[in-house]
Specification:
Methylamine Dehydrogenase, Chain H
């Protein structure tokens, strides 16, 4: 049964950049929401632990909790909303807990469109470019698992050409953003034994891997999130067991660049990033910051895991049902 959940907009204390202000939203749940997807300024989807899926169609003033049958123990680490009625949600593993569901009727009904019988599988994140989609899973053998769809997540195919992986290298299901579409390429970020940006140009077969210059060597360190940024990519990460230690960020200036530039560190470990041409918003358990290509600016000390931008509105989600919006300069 679906039920409407009233929301209330509140202002958080912050250090302002160009008038940026967080509007906190009340979704009425206590789940950790590691998935968020912006459709536009009014419509967004969020997902998380305890089989939680939320949707708003009025700018976050009210949220509707949607029920996925027999999924109350699943952890929906990623969601992709296409419009007010259509969305795809991904549950992270291990093993058979890794699943994908799709709705076409605003969450009234759901269809499972992908699962796995491999007990070594672990789904991490998804990215879509229209009806084309990519789902990344941790390495099984010497390659990451990569599933693709051409019909908006209705059907999936396991691609044998996932990014090659080093021993003890893996991706992080921290915000649904360890994979992203750049202009003319697919990007994947990793951590653990190696902190790398993997790139596959459209029409090519061989992946190229660049060292991000970010923390690596421990299971909890590396690159966690990637977003398209000014013709290249912007990557953030750090060590998730040291939330307030200086985080990491790196920029790929262009797809043909041979190295990444390590930017000044954000204030702490950051699990998610989303960018416009003018600004990147980065989030983590210890705060929210922005990057304008020259400097970091603190926005808030509030805790969030994920961020998604569409138009000039950034939607944020995190632990204990945290939800928020930031209206960005045009």
């Amino acid at each position: 049964m679906r039920r409407a959940l009233a929301g209330l907009l509140l202002s958080l204390p912050l250090v302002a950049q160009a008038g940026l202000r967080i509007e906190t939203l009340q979704g009425g749940v206590d789940a950790r929401l590691r998935g968020v997807s912006a459709v536009d300024a009014k419509i967004a989807w969020a997902s998380g632990s305890k089989g939680t899926v939320l949707r708003t169609t009025d700018g976050g003033a009210h949220w509707q909790r949607l029920t996925v049958p027999d999924a109350d123990k699943l952890d929906f680490r990623d969601v992709e909303g296409f419009d007010a009625n259509s969305a795809v949600i991904m549950a992270a593993g291990p093993g058979v807990q890794s699943r994908v569901f799709r709705t076409r009727d605003g969450g009234a009904t759901w269809t499972q469109t992908l699962d796995t019988s491999n007990d070594k599988a672990f789904f991490d994140c998804m990215a879509f470019d229209g009806a084309r989609g990519w789902l990344l899973g941790d390495p099984v053998g010497d390659r990451y698992q990569l599933y693709t769809t051409i019909d908006g997540g209705e059907h999936w195919t396991l691609d044998s050409n996932g990014p090659p992986a080093q021993k003890d290298e893996a991706a992080f299901a921290a915000s649904g953003t360890c994979i992203a579409r750049l202009k003319g390429a697919t990007a994947v970020v990793s951590g653990g034994a190696a902190s790398r940006l993997h790139l596959l140009r459209d029409g090519e077969h061989d992946w190229r891997a660049l060292d991000t210059g970010m923390a690596r060597g421990k299971p909890a360190t590396g690159a966690f999130s990637v977003s398209a940024w000014r013709g290249g990519a912007f990557v953030v990460g750090g060590e998730y067991t040291a939330e307030k230690s200086p985080g990491d960020a790196a920029t790929l200036a262009a797809l043909n660049a041979k190295a990444m530039h390590v930017d000044a560190a954000p204030r702490g470990y950051r699990s998610g990033v989303a960018c416009t041409q003018r600004i990147c918003i980065v989030v983590g358990p210890s705060g929210v910051d922005s990057w304008d290509g020259k400097r970091w600016t603190a926005i808030s000390d509030a805790s969030f895991d994920a961020v998604s931008i569409r138009g000039n509105v950034a939607w944020l989600s995190g632990a204990k049902g945290a939800l928020a919006r930031i209206v960005l300069p045009r």
